[in-house]
Write a structure and sequence with these properties.
384 residues, alpha/beta, Rossmann fold, Dihydrodipicolinate Reductase, domain 2, 2 domains, nine-stranded mixed sheet, 17 strands, 29% helix, globular
Length: 384
């Protein structure tokens, strides 16, 4: 790898996901055929207490700053990973793009549809930059098998699609409020903004853009501790069920039911997709990460689910043997491999990171869902 192109990255937001990216960069030798190597060159966070782990783990860091503008002014930084609260997406993402840096940003890519549009307008002014959104779950082997089955039209007529991202991080009523539970920082989307692109990334990539949605949004914990002995309002949506109508190429419709839950008893962190068709059905969940369920129908034959252990199947080849199990850190590495591959070669391979256009489409769904909840009716989704 010594003669391979090195891409120097800056990280803005040094918390949980910033550390995951840095760790993936440190594991780049896990990939067998990379075309470029990411190097962590600069870090930025308002909380300088987070710097020590990075500086101890990555001696090549040349800048650690509390001001992201200083990072963007560093000519050695070619690309940026940005993981900041939703209310900061618009200004910081636009500044990153104006500074001429490639960007992988966190979802939802703007606190609302207007902020998202402002970011996309700036992207259009800089066609030489690559801008993508983080969404790692579709890089699981089972999710990729589902994508291939859709692309190969294996299902016959689709009867219904169920997809979701469930966790139970907010099930404790005594958990203190944080920014993800504050409308002014997280946004009105609530759990949809934080979790929704994970759910819609694969369907949107397959061309399944809903035409209308009926939303059921729940605020199960309207108050929370402020962490200092007081109680404050908690106004964001905890759980969302989006009942979507998707139009097929032959003019039919099928229902796509998408769930984003922060309060899902028994679910630590579960992403899933299930497709039922007249010729084939398929189901995959990260709850059972190496298990793919399929049901193929012979005319007049029995209907039986088949369970297959997938092993370590990856888009970008790795040193890990095929008999071993794939996990979350592997999905992060594969997502970053897709980003770096596309940045280095212009080609992301069979499945790339979520695009700005896909974030735009997801915002249209979430905005329509808010209207649906408010008016208690199905809402047509904005098409342009």
């Amino acid at each position: 790898m010594n003669n391979m192109r090195k891409i120097k990255f800056g990280i803005i937001g040094c918390g949980l996901m910033g550390r995951e990216f840095a760790s993936a960069a440190a594991r780049w030798c896990h990939l067998l055929k990379p075309t470029a190597i990411p190097e962590i060159a600069a870090i930025c966070d308002k909380n300088s207490d987070l710097f020590d782990w990075y500086l101890q783990s990555f001696p090549g860091i040349i800048m650690a700053t509390k001001d992201y503008r200083e990072l963007l002014a560093n000519d050695e930084v070619e690309a940026v990973y940005c993981a900041v609260p939703h209310s900061l997406h618009k200004d910081i993402y636009i500044d990153i793009i104006k500074a001429g840096k490639h960007l992988l940003g966190e979802k939802p890519f703007g606190i609302d549809m207007q902020a998202n549009q402002a970011i996309l307008d700036e992207i259009e002014k800089h066609p030489g930059l690559m801008v993508r959104s983080s969404s790692e779950f579709p890089f699981y082997p089972g999710a990729q098998r589902v994508a291939r089955a859709i692309q190969e039209n294996e299902f016959g007529k689709i009867i219904e699609v169920n997809a979701g991202f469930l966790h139970s991080s907010d099930i404790n009523p005594n958990k203190a409020i944080n920014w993800k539970r504050m409308v002014d920082i997280n946004g009105e989307y609530g759990c949809m903004g934080d979790l929704g692109l994970h759910v819609f990334h694969l369907p949107l990539r397959m061309g399944w853009m809903p035409e209308r949605v009926y939303a059921q949004l729940l605020n199960l914990m309207p108050e929370r501790s402020d962490g200092h002995g007081g109680i404050v309002p908690c106004e964001t949506w905890d759980n969302a069920i989006l009942n979507c109508d998707v139009r097929t190429e032959d003019g039919r419709y099928f229902p796509m039911i998408c769930k984003t839950y922060r309060i899902a008893p028994g679910e630590t962190d579960t992403w899933y997709i299930e497709i039922k068709g007249t010729r084939k059905s398929i189901a995959y969940s990260t709850k059972y990460p190496k298990t793919l369920m399929t049901m193929d129908y012979e005319p007049g034959g029995t209907q039986e689910w088949r369970r297959e252990d997938l092993g370590y199947e990856t888009l970008f080849p790795c040193i890990t043997g095929g008999i071993f199990e794939f996990g979350f850190t592997d999905a992060i590495l594969q997502m970053w491999a897709a980003f770096v591959e596309e940045l280095a070669t212009g080609n992301a391979g069979d499945f790339g990171c979520a695009t700005p256009e896909e974030t735009r489409l997801s915002h249209r769904v979430f905005t329509a869902a808010l209207e649906s909840q408010r008016d208690k009716k199905a809402v047509e989704i904005l098409k342009s």
